[in-house]
Write a structure and sequence with these properties.
By secondary structure, this protein is mainly beta. Strands 2, 4, 5, 6, 9, 10 and 11 form a 7-stranded mixed β-sheet that branches. Strands 1-3-8-7 form a 4-stranded antiparallel β-sheet, with no helix packed on it. β5 and β6 form a beta hairpin. The termini are far apart.
Length: 121
């Protein structure tokens, strides 16, 4: 199965910005809904934002107005623009997508390995 690969994490001061990107590691036919999750130390993984193939978005209340999810369907890539970052945004961020590998394949759930985002106060 094709894995997802995230990039763009790092260390930033509170109030700063980061942009995450995620793309499949190999060739695939298409991608359905794409999403970003995050998991802070000692906490459960939580949904941050989702975007459908036609661009409809949904956000967790904690990031509304600060984060923007977008996608490039030609590149099979999803982005997460994070502005006005807060220390409580510190977590490992995971990309998730419904992947269809071939024209006759079935959709399966794919995850990335995660990228660390650390926001210092």
């Amino acid at each position: 199965q094709v894995q997802l690969v995230e990039s763009g994490g790092g260390l930033v001061q509170a109030g700063g910005s980061l942009r995450l990107a995620c793309a499949p590691s190999g060739n695939i036919f298409s991608v359905a809904t794409m999403a970003w999750y995050r998991q802070a130390p000692g906490k459960q993984r939580e949904l941050v934002a989702t975007i459908t193939r036609d661009g409809s978005t949904n956000y967790a209340d904690s990031v509304k107005g600060r984060f923007t999810i977008s996608r490039d369907n030609t590149k099979r890539t999803v982005y997460l623009q994070m502005n006005r970052l807060k220390p409580e945004d510190t977590a490992v961020y995971y990309c998730n997508a419904g992947v269809i590998a071939t024209p006759v394949g079935v959709e399966y759930d794919s995850w990335g390995q995660g990228t660390q985002v650390t926001v210092s106060s």
